[in-house]
Amino acid sequence: MIGCLERFEEYRIMDQIIFVCTGNTCRSPMAEGLFRALDGEARTGLTAQSAGLFAHDGLPASENAVKAAAELGADLSQHHARQLTPEMAKEAKYLVCMTAAHYDRLVEALPWAEDKVFTLSPVDVADPFGGDLATYRACAAQLKDAVGALIGNLEKGRA
Question: What UniProt keywords apply to this chain's record, in alphabetical order (predicted)?
Fold first, then answer.
């Protein structure tokens, strides 16, 4: 009976996609929220999460990230930043980075995870941290397009 439970747990934890940025207060929470808002969880069978490479656990999403994401249907009001841990990386099916630098840093820190680390887009998603609402809106729009494309690609992989 334990063997069945272990297989279920392996299946469950492998169904996670974690969006990764620096502080987990702007880009990665917006990507996570947009993945949900675009019905990505139902369409792909993956549970969306987010984390930061240098996050301060417990910080809320930035005010402008909450506003910009809300305008696109994503709710970040309950988001709290968290640091990406090796355990989280191990449990994820995909680790989706916002920039090539995040990708490089993550693969350097966790070389065993390289096969599951990707960038969201061929073009880096610039950090809007400290920017005005227009900057966050532009970032959110870029994320919405990239996350939508990601969902489409993941759906094709399920067929």
Answer: Hydrolase, Protein phosphatase
